[in-house]
Amino acid sequence: MAASAALVVGAAPAHAAGAAGPPPLTCAAGEVVVPSTTVDSVECRDASPAILAKIGDALIPLILPDAGINLSALNSATAISLSPWFGDMFPGSATIAGTGLASATAVGGTANATADAFLSGAISVGSLGATADSYGLGGLGLSIGAGLAQTSARALPGGIAVALGMGENASATALGGVAVATGFLKASINGPDPDKSSVVCTALYGTAEVTDGETGKHYASCTSVAFIFQKSQQGDGPVVYAIKNPFSLAFGSPLAPLNELLDTVSALGIEAPFPTAVTDILTGKVIPMFTSDLIRVTMTDDGPKFGTDLFGKKSTTPAPDADQPPAGQQVADVQRAAVPAASEPAASEVVTPVVEDDAPIEEAPVTSAPAALDDTTAADVIPAAPTDSAPTDSVEAPEVDDSQAASEGDGDAVEPVDAAPAVVDEVPAG
After folding, report:
1. CA 75 to chain centre
2. What 3-state class would DSSP assign to 342?
3. What is the pLDDT of residues 74-87, one digit of tens each?
4. Which pTM was predicted?
5. Left (φ > 0), alpha (ψ -120 to 50) or beta: where does 190 sit?
6. I need a surface site. Which of 11, 203, 265, 338 has the fewest CB within 10 A?
């Protein structure tokens, strides 16, 4: 994985610095290309020119005149060689198929895109040894991978599926909504970066999953049905079932880290696979997601735990453990383990604050009694008889001085602190 991370950030042999690669190998939809003599290849025979691309090229200039987007040019397969930098280590293979808008770009990787219907789109970008597959059937699938990664996006009618993996595997399927899976390797923890890796399911039916690019270990996954009914799991944590709050819909930018991959490609002197305008849209806050739960059931080892976000943010009880990304799971576990350790010595200290908090609470309601209580408590606690006169003689505190002196001979026999409230109860009784 460390080697994969080095490649993802753009490491290249020193002798290749400034080297210019051979011209890209490309073909348009339906075109037959003579096999290449290099390690790179493209395949377009099973694709038809997309009518959607022609319609889009007529409308886009009216809506975004400065975007510079040409869908017809995008409807192609392109292989960009990395041989000047890495030799034959990363052969490129790009394949498109179908009657929709299919686009595949291989930059030292494998890219396959299939758009099987008129209003369909499938875009794949595989680089630095990754395999990216996209499939569109009445929807738009976008699959981008780099390093030791396999990415797969399946867009069904009305769905947008996005799978983005840099050193990690990512897969997404969407029907009538959006599903996004992003996995970014973080070399320092040898796992997915918790700040850049995520899954989003906001669809009539959607799934998204991120796994380790080398071992296939589960990192994060989610499933949605009818948008608000969702299931999720983070790493080896508990499965969480939730009914999302439909009024908590917000827009996020889980694809923002895509800029890092494009910067890497640019550093090699390779043109980005799509225009800047498209990148700006993808990396902006365009992905809808629900941010709170109406009700949440966390399936822990001790049984189901119920929770809700209706009365505020999620508490720090077992439910958030399911929300912690596994990449940071160990750190989170250490922190949670440290909390009891820190709270045990504090448990004895907690007694003092509790008494301090209770003291003013007892004094607050008995504002008039304390004056008499302070003078008579010691005398009234010992003898039982004086309590009969307590209601009338509570003001005559000085008369109790003799018995008070007698009580001092008994030592600190003030154990019956509970008797003090009894006097308080009798004062209002008069």
Report:
1. 33
2. helix
3. 899 999 988 888 88
4. 0.68
5. left
6. 338
